[in-house]
Structure to design on (174 residues):
């Protein structure tokens, strides 16, 4: 199946306000909230998200789990745990790639048409922005070439640097 380039889009803004079927949470292993995107999602979704996450018994790095969106505009939250950057010698690239694959697999299984990803691991986990963007775009493209769902994948930027990195990756310049 040939990939329609319109299926991957860049969005600069607040992921918790997005009216999509699912947003992806760059979570920590406990799934019980934290800083950055994780904390913002938990605050916006309300305390029932934390209650549901407690039933999931954590999540290994590179894996993903799904919950309801609770008070968010999104119907679902897909929680994935990205790797902490350790210089690239600890399998970080493959773990990050797995985050995107596993999240997209859950989206397909739940018939999710629109999904929004943050720049996983690029905040507190210090994964280099351009390297992460290249992995994200590559994994999303590979998945969408073989699958009809999700229809649209939004790569959400929290700052201008992230947007530039994702645009470079989409243009094939990384």
């Amino acid at each position: 199946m040939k990939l329609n380039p319109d299926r991957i889009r860049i969005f600069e803004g607040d992921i918790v306000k997005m009216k999509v079927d699912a947003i992806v949470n760059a979570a920590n292993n406990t799934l019980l909230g934290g800083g950055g995107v994780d904390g913002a999602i938990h605050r916006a979704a309300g305390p029932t998200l934390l209650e549901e996450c407690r039933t999931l018994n954590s999540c290994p790095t590179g894996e993903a789990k799904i919950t309801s969106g609770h008070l968010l505009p999104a119907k679902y939250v897909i929680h994935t745990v990205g790797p902490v950057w350790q210089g690239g010698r600890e399998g970080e690239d493959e773990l990050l790639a797995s985050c995107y694959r596993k999240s997209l697999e859950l989206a397909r299984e739940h018939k999710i048409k629109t999904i929004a990803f943050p720049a996983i691991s690029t905040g507190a986990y210090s994964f280099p922005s351009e390297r992460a963007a290249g992995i994200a775009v590559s994994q999303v493209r590979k998945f969408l070439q073989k699958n009809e769902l999700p229809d649209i994948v939004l790569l959400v930027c929290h700052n201008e640097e992230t947007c530039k990195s994702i645009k470079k990756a989409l243009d094939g310049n990384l």
Q: What stands out?
A: The first strand starts at residue 8 and ends at 12. Residues 92-109 form the longest helix (18 residues).
